[in-house]
Structure formats: structure tokens, C-alpha cells
Automatic annotation (TrEMBL):
Protein name in UniProt: Pseudouridine synthase
PROSITE patterns: PSI_RSU, S4
Species: Sphingobium lactosutens DS20
Keywords (A to Z) from UniProt: Isomerase, RNA-binding
Domain RNA-binding S4: 75-132
EC numbers on record: 5.4.99.-
Length: 314
């Protein structure tokens, strides 16, 4: 009975060794803190706190100024200028390298300069106004012009075919020289990039006239995607519309928009594309828009569309 009583006392002594405070006189520095839920929590808590004083002690001047004035998070000057429709980010970087962009009269030396607004920014000595609301235009691109601002070989571009009176616009994606149909144009560089990201997944619909023979089953197999010369193409919805002699009219909807995707996929099936028309991009359709004509999307419709995009509005 005495032994049982001794064991009982021993059991009541052990728990404080594990969970109680360290004993005094346990050697230099005392015992190590036991590894348990409590100590892990304390370690994580202290670890999360440790960088904070460093971050607060020396914030970026632009961020400190924004916080003090209550303004939004600063952004790179190249991004702000692109969103204002001045030029693409790549073009802006080139303009900065040429010394054409200044802030409060001093040339900007890096596109990574952080600002909360374009106040005091000039391009070629001209002050930049606050960014206007994003605008979106539908353009019926004709055959025979490039989707680019300028061509070293002097070939015609879409800017040679656009009507007068438009603001500075940038194409969303590309249509090659021999492809016609719907091309979206925007004044907002950020919106342009968002639309071009594969992850955004906006569907594009094309009608292709192709020479050769193909079955509806072959077209339906494209729904599983395919690989051509080491390039993987994702899901494609394709339907045979009608035959005219040995020419087939095929409608295809895809979301990736890789370079010359429709032509390469149909050529892989043994067809030769002799006409390609983009008829829709997301909810925006070519409809009866005349070749070379431009039509602006209503602000209300544009705002609703941007809310449906993955990641929200840019």
C-alpha cells in the first residue's frame, strides 16, 4: 500500500515538469522551453512580429507619403502611364530611357518609380491628365493589315485603317495579316493585359473556310485538346457548319488564343484555311459591323463585363 501511495505522489509531481514554468537553478540559461502547442504558437507569433519594426522603421518614401495623405497604394509610373493610355509599358520604358518623361521637371530615370498619381508628370514636356475611364471599341479589321503600331517593312497596319476621331487605342490580342473580323481596342493598358492573360479565359469565336475533308467527329475530338509539334493546345469547341464543294465552313471557340492557333489546328487535320473571320470575343460580337468600321461599347456594358472577369476589374 505504501508503494502504491508512493507511485501516486510521483504521478502528481511529473506534469509540472512538462507544462509548468522552468525551475530555478536548472543550470546556465535554464532548461529549454518544451516543444508543444503553446511554444509553437509563441514562436509563430514572435516570428510574425519580428519583421514589423524593420518594415515600419524604413518604408519606401512613396508608400510613407501615401499613408500619411490617405491616398491609395503607389504604383509604378510605367503602369500608371499605360493605364492613362500614353503608350504600352514597353514603349514607356523606352521613352524613359530616352529622357522624354519627367516628374516635377526632372527626368525620370527608371520605370519602377513609385507614384500615387500622375500629378507633375510630363511626356515630351506635356502634362499628363488624370486617367479617363476605360473605353472599349469593336473594330472590324479588314484583311491585309497588321495588328501593330508600326511595321519596319512599311506594310499597312490597323492604325492606317482606323477612322479619325478616336482616342489613342491599343489592340487586345492580335489578328494576323490575313485574318479579318472582330478586334477589340481599348484605351487602358492594364485592361488590355488582363484580357490577354490565358488565365482570364475569355472565349474567342472564329469561322474558318477550309479546303479539304473533315468529319464532325474529328472536330469534336478537339474538345479534349491536342499537341502539335510540342505545343499543347487546350479545349476547343468546333462544329462543321456547311460544305461548299470541297470547302468546309467550321466554327471554332477557344480560350487560349495562341499564335495562329486556329490555322495550325485545322492544318493538323489536313485542311488548308483560305479564309478566317473572328466573329466574337467574350460577349462582344462582330454582328453587322461594316469592314473597317468602329463601334464603342457602352460604359454600362463594359463595367458589367469587367465584373465577370477572373480576378475582377483591372
Amino acid at each position: 500500500m505504501g508503494m502504491a501511495s508512493g507511485k501516486k505522489k510521483e504521478l502528481t509531481v511529473e506534469p509540472p515538469k512538462k507544462s509548468g514554468p522552468p525551475r530555478r537553478g536548472a543550470g546556465a540559461g535554464g532548461p529549454k522551453r518544451p516543444v508543444g502547442p503553446r511554444s509553437r504558437h509563441a514562436t509563430a507569433k514572435s516570428a510574425s512580429r519580428s519583421p514589423r519594426p524593420l518594415q515600419d522603421a524604413n518604408p519606401h518614401p512613396a508608400r510613407a507619403a501615401a499613408a500619411a495623405s490617405g491616398k491609395g497604394e503607389p504604383q509604378r509610373i510605367a503602369k500608371l502611364l499605360a493605364r492613362a493610355g500614353v503608350a504600352s509599358r514597353r514603349e514607356i520604358e523606352r521613352m524613359i530611357a530616352e529622357g522624354r518623361i519627367a516628374l516635377d521637371g526632372a527626368p525620370v530615370d527608371t520605370p519602377a518609380t513609385l507614384l500615387t498619381s500622375l500629378h507633375g508628370v510630363t511626356v515630351d514636356g506635356v502634362a499628363i491628365a488624370a486617367p479617363a475611364p476605360t473605353r472599349l471599341f469593336l473594330f472590324h479589321k479588314p484583311v491585309g493589315c497588321l495588328t501593330t503600331e508600326r511595321d519596319p517593312a512599311g506594310r499597312p497596319t490597323i492604325y492606317d485603317r482606323l477612322p479619325d476621331g478616336l482616342p489613342r487605342v491599343m489592340p487586345i490580342g492580335r489578328l494576323d495579316m490575313n485574318t479579318e473580323g472582330l478586334l477589340l481596342l481599348t484605351t487602358d493598358g492594364g485592361f488590355k493585359r488582363q484580357m490577354e492573360l490565358p488565365a482570364t479565359g475569355v472565349p474567342r469565336t472564329y469561322r474558318a473556310r477550309a479546303f479539304g475533308e473533315v468529319s464532325q467527329q474529328q472536330l469534336e475530338d478537339l474538345f479534349d485538346g491536342l499537341e502539335i509539334d510540342g505545343v499543347r493546345y487546350g479545349q476547343i469547341e468546333a462544329n462543321l457548319e456547311r460544305r461548299t464543294g470541297r470547302n468546309q465552313w467550321i466554327e471554332m471557340t477557344l480560350t487560349e488564343g495562341k499564335n495562329r492557333e486556329v490555322r495550325r489546328v485545322l492544318e493538323h487535320l489536313g485542311l488548308k484555311v483560305n479564309r478566317l473571320i473572328r466573329t466574337a470575343y467574350g460577349p462582344f460580337a462582330l454582328g453587322e459591323l461594316a469592314v473597317g468600321a468602329v463601334e464603342e461599347v457602352r460604359q454600362h456594358d463594359l463595367i458589367l463585363f469587367r465584373k465577370t472577369l477572373k480576378g475582377g476589374a483591372a
